[in-house]
Amino acid sequence: MQPTLFIADLHLSEDRPDITAAFDTFMSSQARDAAALYVLGDLFEAWIGDDDTCHFNQHIKQAFRTLTNSGVPVYFIHGNRDFLIGKKFAGETGIQLLPEKQVIDLYGEKVLIMHGDSLCTRDHKYMAFRKKSRGWWWPKLMLALPLWYRRRVAQNARKTSALHQKNSSEQIMDVTPSEVDRVMTEAGVSKLIHGHTHRPAIHKFQLGDKQAQRIVLGDWYSQSSVLRVTPQSTELKGTPL
């Protein structure tokens, strides 16, 4: 049986041709043989709007269009770097946009999938920004600005984010266990798949009276991290770039 694949946190950009090359290889090999591909956010280092039609963005969109045209369904959940991806991008690529939390049927098991940034509730500064940026007015304001200005805003945001991560403890930047318990209980699942923290691992823990599992996808800064799931196995593997 064909596997279902999950990826996140590729942070694609023109500045990292090695990541783009790994992405191209993945899309033309593993992804072609998948039953479905789920992209759980931060596909791009920064996405400033569907109207940014630079050559690099067109290249990435064509890779997705080729894959979906081949019959592989692709599902996408927004991350904190690409939450401005909209219906135009979806239409041009053939991907299906999902809400920030989605329960899927994975070979007969209910599984919750999400980007994972909303789980990091101890990072109060980021959570305040997240609340503002996901509101109804902030995206509209940003998309009304000229592209050149949005690029400058994105550059400044990346610098601010890097400084914030450098000055924050690992505990603050990781998920809050009680929030993980809450969202999984609310969704009625015992398995969660997410990205965002860049700490690939398969965690097993007790959730109420059940055994639970939380799978964290890896980023693509130094490896192409892919979760491969079949009815018989679950494999989280990173291939060095």
UniProtKB/TrEMBL annotation:
EC number: 3.6.1.54
Membrane-topology annotation of the record: Peripheral membrane protein
The organism's place on the tree of life at top rank: Bacteria
Keywords: Cell inner membrane, Cell membrane, Hydrolase, Lipid A biosynthesis, Lipid biosynthesis, Lipid metabolism, Manganese, Membrane, Metal-binding
CDD domains given in the database record: MPP_YbbF-LpxH
Cofactor binding annotation: Binds 2 Mn(2+) ions per subunit in a binuclear metal center.
Binding site for Mn(2+) 1: D9, H11, D42, H198
Main subcellular location of this protein, as a coarse class: membrane
MF-aspect GO terms: manganese ion binding; UDP-2,3-diacylglucosamine hydrolase activity
Gene3D superfamilies linked: 3.60.21.10
Domain Calcineurin-like phosphoesterase: from-to ranges: 3-200
GO cellular component: cytoplasm; extrinsic component of plasma membrane
Residues noted as binding substrate in the record, renumbered to the chain: N80, R81, D123, S161, Q165, H196
Entry keyword annotation includes Cell wall biogenesis/degradation: no
Function: Hydrolyzes the pyrophosphate bond of UDP-2,3-diacylglucosamine to yield 2,3-diacylglucosamine 1-phosphate (lipid X) and UMP by catalyzing the attack of water at the alpha-P atom. Involved in the biosynthesis of lipid A, a phosphorylated glycolipid that anchors the lipopolysaccharide to the outer membrane of the cell.
Protein name: UDP-2,3-diacylglucosamine hydrolase
Organism: Lacimicrobium alkaliphilum
